[in-house]
Write a structure and sequence with these properties.
89 residues; 2 helices; alpha+beta; single chain
Length: 89
């Protein structure tokens, strides 16, 4: 089982706080998959998970998690870590 990645950056933009786990430049394609709604919503209402298709592979990884801005950056980071642990464990 893969180890949960560390937070690579936290940025507040528009309606969301983007908690980045992996560099988006390493992916051919990035999506917000429907299957990730349940684990994300179970931790933070209105959150979204972005996944990326690894270049030259069929593997997909969580690249970032978007948490509603009203949560605050510190709480957003904690909630994003909880979400990615649910997905990657």
């Amino acid at each position: 089982m893969a180890e949960t990645p560390d937070v690579d950056g936290v940025e507040t933009e528009d309606e969301y706080i983007h908690v980045r786990f992996r560099d988006p430049d390493r992916y051919d394609e990035i999506r917000t998959p429907d299957w990730a709604d349940d684990p994300a919503e179970s931790v933070s209402e209105g959150s979204e998970v972005r996944t990326g298709k690894v270049e030259g592979s069929d593997d997909w990884e969580v690249t970032s998690i978007l948490i509603k801005k009203n949560v605050g950056e510190e709480n957003a980071e904690e909630q994003a870590l909880e979400i990615i642990e649910k997905i990657e464990s």
